Amino acid sequence: MADKLGLVENFLSCHVCSETFRDPVSLSCNHSFCSSCLQKFWEQAKNKNCPICKRKSSKDEPCMNFALKELADSFAKRHSESSPETEKEKEEEKEEVVCDIHPDIPYWYCEDEDRAVCPVCEFSLHQSHKVVPVEEAVSDLKEQLKSDLKSLQDKRNKYKQVEETYNEMREHMKKQLLSTERQIRAEFKKLQQFLKEEEESRLAALREEEEQKGRTISREMKMIEEQISSLSDSICAAEEELQKHSVPFLSSYKDTQSRARAQSSVSDPQLVSGALIDVAKHLGNLSFRVWEKMKEKVHFSPVILDPNTAKASLYLSDDLTSVRHGDTKQQLSDNPERNTKYHTVFGSEGFSSGKHSWEVEVGDHPVWLVGLVKESVDRKGKCFASPKCGIWCLKHHSGKYTNGDGQTVTVKKSLQRIRVQLDYDRGEVSFYDPEDMPIYTHRDTFTEKLFPHFSIGKAGDAKTSDIKICQTEI
Question: In 3D, which of 266, 357, 311 has the Cα closest to residue 456?
Answer without folding.
Answer: 311
